[in-house]
């Protein structure tokens, strides 16, 4: 009985060993098959995997390019803003230089003429009478009064025709209602200079004598006749001389010394009549 039991245990061990060996063989063969399938699948998927990896790399590169472009755009906007600020500063500097030149010219002119002046800025003008009136930022509280002459370093501008506390109104030499006694500087022949309003930027001088000696290029100055304008103020230069149809009156077209289209600062002579009154006997 004992011998039979030992035999059964031995037989069971042998059977178990055989089964294990068979299983190992089958598993090995299946593993080889699996490995072959895996290799085939890997090889088949390799191009697709490579394509996806290239796509991913392209996307990463595209995102990097987008970030770089955004950074360049921000830098360009910053540089553009700085350039615009620089240009604005240059324009402002140039404007200050031009203003300084104008003020220096006014200062030099005021020092050369024996009158007291008030410097004023042109602050308004009406497009409907652009060549007739301007408004300046000085009034009675600054010593301005009606009929005071107004000039620039380029010559005669006109006269004050209205005054309030802080502003005044100036009739320009180019106004059709403005008339100024004038002389040809070289020959001293006299006449009246009048404006032509919006019809022409030129002035027109009518001479008292038909034999007046006047020619193109002659300078005209104020005669000093009357109580408003002092003598010797520059008016402009003759550009053309004509004679009335019957030969009785001689006229001259005059280009004014002042650029009336771009007036910005003026000088108001505040003591001419007082100086004239002091000189009277």
What does this structure look like?
The protein is an alpha+beta fold. It folds into two domains: 1-112; 116-279, Beta Barrel (Thrombin, subunit H). It is 42% helix and 26% strand. The strands form two sheets. A six-stranded antiparallel barrel has the order 1-2-5-4-3-12. Strands 6-7-8-11-10-9 form a six-stranded antiparallel barrel. The termini are far apart. Residues 274-281 have low confidence and may be disordered.
Summarize the structure.
This protein is an alpha+beta fold. It is 42% helix and 26% strand.
Named at the architecture level, the CATH assignment of the largest domain is Beta Barrel
Tell me roughly what share of residues is in helical segments. 40-55%
Distance between the termini: 176 Å
The number of helical elements comes to: 2
- The average pLDDT score comes to 78
Write the layout of secondary structure elements.
Layout: H1 2-112, E1 117-124, E2 133-136, E3 149-152, E4 155-163, E5 168-172, E6 179-184, E7 190-194, E8 203-207, E9 219-222, E10 234-243, E11 250-256, E12 265-269, H2 272-279
Antiparallel strand pairs: 1-2, 1-12, 2-5, 3-4, 3-12, 4-5, 6-7, 6-9, 7-8, 8-11, 9-10, 10-11
Key words describing this protein structure:
281 residues; alpha+beta; Thrombin, subunit H; 6-stranded antiparallel beta barrel; 2 helices; 42% helix
């Amino acid at each position: 009985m004992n011998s039979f039991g030992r035999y059964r245990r031995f037989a069971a061990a042998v059977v178990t060993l055989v089964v294990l060996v068979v299983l190992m063989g089958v598993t090995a063969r299946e593993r080889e098959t699996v490995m072959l399938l895996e290799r085939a699948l890997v090889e088949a998927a390799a191009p697709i995997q490579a394509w996806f990896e290239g796509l991913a790399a392209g996307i990463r590169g595209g995102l990097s390019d987008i970030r770089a472009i955004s950074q360049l755009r921000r830098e360009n906007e910053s540089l553009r803003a700085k350039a615009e600020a620089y240009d604005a500063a240059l324009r402002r500097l140039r404007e200050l230089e031009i203003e300084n030149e104008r003020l220096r010219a006014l200062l030099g002119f005021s020092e050369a003429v024996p009158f007291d002046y008030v410097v004023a800025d042109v602050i308004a003008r009406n497009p409907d009478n652009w060549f007739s009136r301007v408004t300046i930022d000085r009034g009675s509280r600054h010593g301005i009064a009606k009929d005071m002459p107004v000039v620039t370093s380029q010559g005669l501008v006109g006269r004050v025709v209205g005054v309030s506390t802080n502003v005044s109104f100036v009739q320009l030499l180019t106004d059709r209602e403005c008339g100024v006694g004038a002389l040809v500087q070289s020959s001293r022949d006299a006449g009246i200079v009048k404006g032509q309003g919006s019809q022409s930027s030129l002035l027109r001088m009518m001479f008292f004598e038909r034999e007046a000696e006047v020619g193109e290029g002659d300078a005209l100055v104020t005669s000093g006749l009357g109580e408003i304008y002092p003598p010797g103020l520059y008016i402009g230069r003759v550009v053309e001389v004509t004679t009335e149809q019957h030969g009785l009156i001689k006229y001259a077209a005059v280009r004014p010394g002042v650029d009336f289209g771009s007036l910005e600062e003026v000088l108001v002579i505040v003591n001419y009549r007082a100086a004239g009154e002091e000189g009277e006997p």
